[in-house]
Amino acid sequence: MKHVIHAEWTKFRTVRGWVVGMVVAIPLTVLIGLLGPAGDSFHCAGPNGQKCAGQSPPTGPDGTPVFDSFYLVHRTLTGDGAITARVAPLTGAEPWAKAGLIVKQSTRAGSAYAAVMTTGGHGVRMQYDYTEDIAGPVNARWLRLSRKGNTLTGAVSADRGHWTTVGTAQLDLGSRVEAGMFVSSPQHVERTQSFGDITEDGYPTSATTTFDEVTTDGEWRTGWHGTAVGGASEVVTTGMTEQDGRFRITGHGDITPIVAAGLGRNVENALVGVFAGLIAVLVVATLFATSEHRRGLIRTSFAANPRRGQLLAAKAIVIGGVSFVVGVVSAALSIPLVAELEVAKGFFLFPTSTGTEIRVIVGTGLLFAVAAVLAVAAGSLLRRGAGTVTAMTVGLVLPYLLAVASVLPAGPADLLTSVTPAAGFAIQQTLREYPQVSASYTPADGYFPLSQAGGFAVLCAYAVLATVLATFALRRRDA
Questions:
Q1: Is the dihedral of CA 352, 357, 359, 365 positive or negative?
Q2: Which phi and psi (to 5°) does residue 353 adopt?
Q3: Residues 6 or more apart from 225 whose CB is under 8 A from it?
Q4: pLDDT tens-digit profile of 209-241?
């Protein structure tokens, strides 16, 4: 097998056009990626490269960008303690409007917290540190949030007699925390889509509810006072009134991780040019398989090695290995170069760990490699360069472009990126989907319907199937 691979490698490197095509794929990927931020009219950098005021959102304890804006009625708790209250239903509010009890490390936006709450349309929840969400009963009148050491426990009751634990969280908040009652109400967003264009219209909302029969246990300091965490709203009125132990609180804002890609740039934005580089790779891979058939040279190859399946495997190994290197280099150059340009223009960059960037870079290499193997197999089946390139573009690249360019509605876009080879682009995905956040989770927003591994598995399945069929066809056909 080694001598067959060496022979195929020799064929590849001695054809200048194939080598040039692979090399061109690298700057093509990078340049298309740079066109996005370079052509964007947005610019928000100061004279020394500083971001504009308010451009970067607060970040949670794990570095996740977050919304952290609500109205808080609180006291200082030192050590262990608990707060219990009855909460009136949130009627007519946004589905993810929240009213409940919270223990927060401080009133600084982005600080660690745990909360148990009722919502406008999603029942009772316990949420903590922005990313974690535990569902409880649909309805409950009484809420309790207790702290013992680093353990925070949320519980609910219908009659204050029988309590049901919703969830627990292990958080090191320090000895002194702010705890009490809160209300929030997120922006109302209506999303409309027309061909090639997605628009969002929205308006700020507020929610109001009443807390009564409020009791506290433990070492509490100071009296109750109100704070608009994240800053007071300029468009809606928030605050609280107290009478005879009844707290009427109006809040605005949200306490969630940020998922809307439009609020910043992420790794996927830097790799928007991958489709262009991939087309170049597919053309070279196709010609690598079809040129010998077109010129009749395949007879010489079969005479030298009658094991036709082995010959196809050698072609796949060579072109797959070269394509992997091209994909890795393309992604490794695109990510920092595009990010540098985005920072220069004042965009907020979603934080990405080094490990995630390495996974995406290697994943891009695997995407190129498996796509090239698919093209070689398809070329061996069809034996026509133009037809194979067209089939590969229509089956792999076009569905991806239609999905991410918002040309198609969400349903068809999800379907195309689930059942076609374009599902393989999911291997580049870095954004996390949160069930407790209502947002547009579509390929156009950076969210593929399949996981990274699932989408890549679909592409691999196409490559395996095509290779099996091509092997069978080579053995059945004359040269």
A1: positive
A2: -70, 160
A3: 73, 74, 75
A4: 999 999 999 999 889 999 999 988 878 889 999
Rounded CA Rg of the chain: 28
Residue 355's domain spans which residues? 2-42+263-476
217, 237, 257 - which closes a domain? 257
Q: What is the pTM of this model?
A: 0.84
CB of 183 within 8 A of CB of 99?
yes
One-letter amino acid for residue 196 of the chain: G
Separation between Cα atoms, residue 315 and residue 292, nearest integer Å: 12
Mind listing the pLDDT tens digit for each residue in 46-105? 444 444 544 578 999 998 899 999 999 999 999 999 999 999 998 888 999 999 999 999
**Which of 223, 238, 257 delimits the end of a domain?**
257
User: Which residue is it, tokens 């934080």?
Assistant: 351
Closest by CA to 59, choosing from 323, 380, 351, 291, is: 351
Judge contact between 110 and 190, C-beta under 8 A.
no
d(CA 50, CA 39): 20
Write down the residue that tokens 């219990």 correspond to: 84
What distance in Å separates the CA atoms of residue 398 and residue 387, rounded to the nearest whole number? 15
Name which of 152, 109, 154, 120 is nearest 136 in CA terms: 154
User: What is the distance between the alpha carbons of residues 402 and 409, in angstroms, rounded to a whole number?
Assistant: 10
Residue 293 corresponds to which tokens in the numbers above? 């058939």
